[in-house]
Amino acid sequence: MSAPVIIFFVLAAMCVIGAISLILQRHPIHSALSLIVVMVALAGLYLLMGAEFVAAVQIIVYGGAIMVLFVFVIMLLNAGLEERTNVSKLAGFAGIPLAVALTGLLAAAVARSEDAVQAATQTGATAPNKALANLLFQDFVYPFELTSFLILVAILGAIVLAGPRSET
Amino acid sequence: MVPTHYYVILSAVLFGLGVIAFIFKRNIITIFMSIELMLNAVNLAFVAFSQVWHRLDGQVFVLFVIVVAAAEAAVGLGIIIMITRNRKTLNVEDVNLLKL
Amino acid sequence: MNDFLAQHAEILISLVKIAILLFVVLTVNAYLTWFERKVVAHIQSRWGPHRVGPHGLLQPLADGLKFLFKEDPTPAGVDKFVYYLAPLLALALALTSIAVIPFGPDPLHFKGHDIYLGITDLNIGILALFAITALGVYGVALAGWSSNSKYPLLGGLRSSAQMVSYELALTMSVVGVLLMAGTFSLREIIDGQANGHGLFGLGGIFRWNIFAGPFPQILGFLCFFVAAVAETNRVPFDLPEAESELVAGFHTEYASFKFAMFFIAEYTSMITVSCLCSILFFGGWLSPFPASWTFTHYLPSFLLIPFGLWVIWDGLRYETIFGKLILPGVGTVITALGVLFIAFPAVNEFAQGPFWLLSKIFVFLFIYVWMRGTLPRFRYDQLMSFGWKLLLPVSLANVVITATALLWSNR
Hints:
- The complex is a heterotrimer of chains A (168), B (100) and C (411).
- Helices cover 75% and strands 0% of the residues of chain A.
- Chain A is built from 6 helices and no strands.
- In chain A, helix 2 (28-48) packs antiparallel against helix 3.
- The model of chain A has no long low-confidence stretch (mean pLDDT 84).
- Chain B contains 3 helices and no strands.
- Chain B is 77% helix and 0% strand.
- Chain B has one domain (4-94): Helix Hairpins (Orthogonal Bundle).
- The mean pLDDT of chain B is 90.
- With 100 residues, chain B is mainly α.
- Chain C has one domain (59-286, 344-409).
- Chain C has helices at residues 2-7, 9-43, 59-69, 80-96, 125-146, 150-181, 186-195, 218-231, 243-246, 256-281, 299-316, 321-343, 345-374, 380-409, and strands at 108-110, 113-115.
- The radius of gyration of chain C is 23 Å and the shape is globular.
- The model of chain C has no long low-confidence stretch (mean pLDDT 87).
- Chains in contact: A-B, A-C.
- At the A-B interface, helix 1, helix 2, helix 3, helix 4 and helix 5 of A face helix 1, helix 2 and helix 3 of B.
C-alpha cells in the first residue's frame, strides 16, 4: 500500500461520500456543498495523476464560479427543504442491491481487463503547462475560439432569460 | 502507482450516483447539480486515459468540457429562474401543465 | 529515534515550517490590527490605543482575550452546519494561501538538508493562489445566507457578487506578468525579474516587472492592486460590511470568536495580496539597487541599529515599570540583530532577500491602511460598474498590449 494508493483511496472516499450526500441531503444548499466537496476531491485526484493545470482550472472554474452560481440561485430563489414523496418501497428494496450488483459486475470486468491497458504513470513531461498550451492553441485553436463564442452566447442568453423585465 | 482501472471504476461509480440523483430528486436545482456530477465523472475518465497514453489531448478535452458545462449551467439556471417566476415552485412534479 | 527523524526528515521539516509560519502570520495579523488603528488614528489627528502597554502594543493581546471570553450566542433558526462552517472555511482558505509564497532565495543548510524559506514552490503557484481566492467567496456567501436575517443576507450576496466580479480583473491583470515570465511558479517569476532585461538596459529597480521588459506592467499593477483591494473587501470597496449601511454586513450575526475568525481571514488576505504585489510586480526579494553596489548590503543594519537605539531611549522615558522593562529589551534585540548583520557577512547575505521582501510587504500594508484612513467608500452600483466596465477591459487591454510587445521584441 504505497502512499499514492492511500491518497487515492482517501480522495475516492471523499468523492463517493460527497456524491451519496448529494442524494441524501434534503436541503439544496447542503447538496451544493457536497458537490463542492466532490469537485475539490476530484481536483486532488487530478493532481495525483500529474494533471496540475486541469486541477487548478477545476477548482477555479467549477468550484469557484459554477458552484457559486448554483449557490447564488439557491439563495435567490429561497429554495426550501424537499418534500417527501411516495416512492415505492419495492424500488428501494429491489433496486439498490441490483444497482450495486451491476456496478460490481462492471468493476470486475474493468479490473480483469487491466492487462490490456498499461498502468498509469505520470506523463513526466518537463513542462506540461507549455505542452498543454501548445496543444490548445495550435491543434485545437478552432474549438477554442468556438468555445469563446459559446460563452458569449451563454452570457447573452442568461441575461435575456433572467434579466430585468422591461415593461413596455 | 495507482492502476488505471481504479480511476475508471471510480468514474463509473460517480456517474451512476449522478444518474440515481437525477432520477430520484425532485428539486430542479438538485437535478441540475447531478448533471454536473455526471460531467465531472466523465472528466475523471478523460484525465485517467490521458495519463495512460501519455498524450495531453484528454486534458484539453477536459478543459472544453468544463467550459461547456459552465455555459450550460448559466443558461440552465436562467431557465430555472424563469420557470420559478411563472410556476412559483421548484418541484419538477408540479410543472405538469402539459400532462394529459 | 534518529532513524525515524532521518527517514521522515522532509515531512518533519515541512511540519516545523508550517508551525513557525502559522505562528508568525497570526502574530503579524494581531499587530497589523494595532498598526492599522494607530495609523488611522494619526491620520485623524488622534492617538489610537496608547494605554494598554507601551504605545498600545498590548492592545492586540487584550482584544484576543476579549474574543476568547466573550459570550458566543447562536441565533435561532440558523442553519447550524453552514453557520459554523462559514468562518472556518474563510479562515482555513486565507491561511492556506500563505503556503505557496516564497520568502527568500537561498536555502538554509542544516545537517545536510536544504531548507528553503517558504513552505513549498508549486509549478502552478499563482494558479493555486487564484484557486484559493476563488473558493474564498463561499465563506462570505454562506455566512450571509445561514444567518437567517435580512441584513446579513443582503450583505453576503452583495459582497460575494463583488468578489466574483473583481476576481476576473484580478486574474487578467496578472496574465501580463505571466506572459513575461513564461511560468506560473512564483520563485521563477522572481528569478525572471533578476535576469530579465530592464528598461533602457539598466539594472536593479528597472528590472522589476513594473518597469521592465518590452512593456512595463504599470497598468497591470494598478488593475491588480485595485481588484485585490475589492477582493479583500477593504475600503473603498467595503460597502457590504460598512456599519452605516448594513449593520455589519455578512458577519452581523457572528459573535466573539467566529467574528475573530472572519477578521483574521480578512487581514491574512491583505498580507497575501501585499506579498503577491511585491513578488509579481516589484521584484520580490530583489534589491532596487544594482548588484554591483555592494555597500547597499549594509542597509538592513543601517536601519535596524538607529531604530533599536531609539526604542531603548523611548522605553527608558516611560513611567510604567512595564514600559521601562519591555521596550528597552525589544530595542536591545533589534540593535543586536543589526550588529549581527555587520559582524557576520554570511548572515548578512542570507538576510538580504527576506529583508527586501518584508520591506515591500510592509509598504503595501501601509498603503492599505492609508487608504482606509483617507478614502470614502463606493456605492454598490458604482462599484460594480467600475469593476465590469473599467477594470476588466483595461486588464484585457494590458494582456493584448503585453503580448504584442513580446512578439515585437522577439521578432
